[in-house]
């Protein structure tokens, strides 16, 4: 199962199944869906979406990130 949403908390209990998108802002030059399409084409090569998401999106690492490490 793949969960696609612009709000990561929508799939926070299944991070490895989630694909985050940027929120659409009425920008006619927005290409987010093109990126999603390319990613979904690549996902087809895997038996389990969690495998590619762990490798490419690394969302679990966000939970381990500390504010100090951001350098803000």
- Element string (H = helix, E = strand): EEHHHH
Number of distinct helices: 4
Computed Rg: 14 Å
Strand order of the largest sheet: 1-2
> How would you sum up the global shape?
globular
Class from secondary-structure proportions: mainly alpha
> Roughly how much helix do the residues carry, as a percent range?
40-55%
Low-confidence stretches: none
The overall pLDDT, averaged over residues, is 88
Total beta strands: 2
Count of domains: 1
C-alpha termini separation: 35 Å
Q: How large a portion of the residues is in β-strands, by DSSP E?
A: 5-15%
Largest sheet: number of strands, sense, barrel closure: 2 strands, parallel
Name the descriptors.
mainly alpha; 4 helices; 2 strands; globular
Explain the layout of strands and helices.
Elements: E1 3-5, E2 18-20, H1 32-43, H2 49-56, H3 60-64, H4 67-70
Parallel strand pairs: 1-2
Description of the molecule:
- With 72 residues, the chain is mainly α.
- It has one domain (3-20, 29-70).
- It has 4 helices and 2 strands.
- The protein has helices at residues 32-43, 49-56, 60-64, 67-70, and strands spanning 3-5, 18-20.
- It has a two-stranded parallel sheet.
- The radius of gyration is 14 Å and the shape is globular.
